[in-house]
Write a structure and sequence with these properties.
By secondary structure, the protein is an alpha+beta fold. The chain has one domain. About 15% of the residues lie in helices and about 25% in strands. The protein has 7 helices and 20 strands. Strands 3-4-5-17-16-18-15 form a 7-stranded antiparallel β-sheet, with helices on one face. The longest helix is centred in the N-terminal third of the chain and has 16 residues. It is globular and about 50 Å long. The two termini are about 30 Å apart.
Length: about 400
Amino acid sequence: MKRFQRFLYLLAILPLLVYGCDKGGGYHHELPPPDNGGGQEQGGGNEQGGGNEQGGGNEQGGGNEQGGGNTHSGPWDANRGKVVRPVNGQDGWTVTNVQDGIVYYAFSSSSETITGAAQKAFAVDVDLNNPKYEVQITRTSPTAYTSAVHAAHNSLATINAGYEAGSIYIRVDGKTYSNIPNVEIGTTGQDNWKSEGAFYIDNNGKPGIVFLGSPKRDGVVSGIKGCTYAEAVKKQRTYYDAMPKATYPYLLSSAPSMVDDFEPIGETFCDYTISETAANKLNSENLEHHQRVRHPRTAVALTEDNHLILFVVDGRRTARKGMSCKELTDFLIKWFNPQYALNLDGGGSTAMCVEGLSNSQYANGQTHIVNSPVDDSTSGKERARDTHIIILEK
């Protein structure tokens, strides 16, 4: 029935999109790489780089029901039906049960195998089959630290979420606060690439992730590949606007989409013929710099067994190098095997709070921050943001 309803919904909005351009298994501890060399092994954080990031992420979210545009067969199909989680003591992982249905994972390695670099990453696994938990997207004006949002909502877990409002779509509790107003990122002159996908929560409280597509690749929006970025923003905005507020009261766009129905599309978002050194010389909001270069990252993912994964990886320091979009995609797949995954705002914004836990860097554990934020190149300094994803106990 739900599939039929989605089919009717897509038929209803199809006229709005035709414009602009022509142009099972058992439990596994980790997954091997796919046969095509893509990284279905490890999963991780949120890219970002450069200053006060800007916006637009991936808007929509179809959860384990709606999630993507293209359903392609490939080596990734071997991952269907496999439940994958790290084991305590395995390859640098520490596992802590926060409470029934919520598990916290911390990773530390001086030479992580996918990146070959020192990494520290953190994840919260929420069992959505447990009816006692609720997922929300919050918006705060003025902006607030992740730790302050965590405290204000009495959250069990909190992560930073959206890029700057001018670059993304933001809908909270049925009210739209931003609908991707800018075709360029701030005053940088860079194309707004930040909304090819979205995380959403429907009126039943079920979260989802949807992949719309971009000028570089097709998703649920037909013909978006090959458009200019200005045309793509218009198509993305139209699609998100057409998602009924009563049905999808929470919606936050972001980019890149990393996993779409098990396909590791985050591996191909950037041009990897460009060296990291060359990419690092580009404008900080250029997508090749933003996603090709290693940075702290934040991500959200959904698994086939109906678990929500909140993820961050630290970066920009000797013992915490950070990841590119491709590395993050591969790391998440290796250790959590998500069916859908979306990169969120990262860099100096990356922060995670877990109730009852804290990084020893923070006195008395009062902030509940488990990673080490790095705003303005200052280790331990949080960046105030306007949107967050929180986990509440009903």
